[in-house]
Amino acid sequence: MYQPPDPTGSPPRSAAASCLCVRAAARLRVAPGMQPSGPAAAELDASLEQYLRVRIFKIIVIGDSNVGKTCLTFRFCGGAFPASTEATIGVDFREKTVEIEGEKIKVQVWDTAGQERFRKSMVEHYYRNVHAVIFVYDVTKMASFHNLKMWIEECNGHAVPPFVPKVLVGNKCDLREQIQVPSSVALKFADAHNMLLFETSAKDPKESQNVESIFMCLACRLKAQKSLLYRDMERQQGKVQKLEFTQDANNKNSCPC
Ligand SMILES: Nc1nc2c(ncn2[C@@H]2O[C@H](COP(=O)(O)OP(=O)(O)OP(=O)(O)O)[C@@H](O)[C@H]2O)c(=O)[nH]1
Ligand SMILES: [Mg+2]
């Protein structure tokens, strides 16, 4: 099980936004007497800072054991369906860097355990400072759909703020003959909980674009949300005089959802 630098999931809170920013400490080595100075040095600093600053969005994947959380996250981050999987113990971390409107964003996916015995000591960490939540059920198992209520209650019980985007994913759509959860029922449930619904298959390669869309949709929403937050903070600090919508808020078309 890969351990990220901070397994508690407690990123340092940035003053400007709740998203995690990683700044790698850069040390430029130049020959004596060759150090840039004045505006050139400032420009170099700025571009280095821009280059090294990557936002990380923590997305957790929640649902019953065996619904395909590991396979979905593997499909998104690894681009394939895993040859075999075992029940996840605690959490597995996967990452993918995506580019949205010119900004590189690291999507940090927390593939959580569905089995109670493998998750109970970790639950607090799953929800801490989470940026988005994906609830997964298996379209061929009605019980996994009914259990979504319990997963949503657990999420709400951990004080996840309402503005944190949440989506619903029905997995294993390739097993057409065995489908137990009708799309209409799932859609009604998703609407009632203010979530988008994605029906897909981690296994079927033809659905890989759809799996990608789930994560990209959330990343786009988070990017737009955070940009507005930055702007809001600046306004509060008196740096921006009038309300302006950011480019992100206007460019909704670039979002896959
Ligand atoms: N047919 C089909 N099988 C799938 C799909 N996704 C996952 N599976 C299978 O479902 C089983 C469980 O998949 P996992 O991804 O390990 O399930 P999980 O939700 O991570 O389970 P836990 O780690 O125990 O919580 C495996 O045998 C997978 O091969 C899918 O889209 N279609
Ligand atoms: Mg798993």
> How many alpha or pi helices?
9
The first-to-last residue Cα distance is 32 Å
Structural classification:
alpha/beta
Shape: globular
Bound molecules: guanosine-5'-triphosphate, magnesium ion
User: Rg, please?
Assistant: 20 Å
Report low-confidence residues grouped into runs of 5 or more: 1-32, 239-254
Mean pLDDT: 80
How many beta-strand elements?
Answer: 7
> Considering DSSP H and I runs of 4 or more, what fraction of the residues is helical?
25-40%
Could you walk me through the main structural features you see in this protein, from its secondary elements to its overall organization?
This protein is of the alpha/beta class. It is built from nine helices and seven strands; from the N terminus they run βαβαββααβααβαβαα. The protein has helices at 38-52, 69-78, 116-119, 123-127, 142-146, 148-157, 183-192, 208-236, 247-250, and strands at 20-23, 53-63, 91-100, 103-112, 132-138, 166-171, 196-199. Strands 1, 2, 3, 4, 5, 6 and 7 form a seven-stranded mixed β-sheet that branches. Helix 7 (183-192) links the parallel strand 6 and strand 7. The longest helix is centred in the C-terminal third of the chain and has 29 residues, at 208-236. The protein is globular and about 70 Å long. The protein starts with 19 loop residues before the first strand and ends in a 7-residue tail after the last helix.
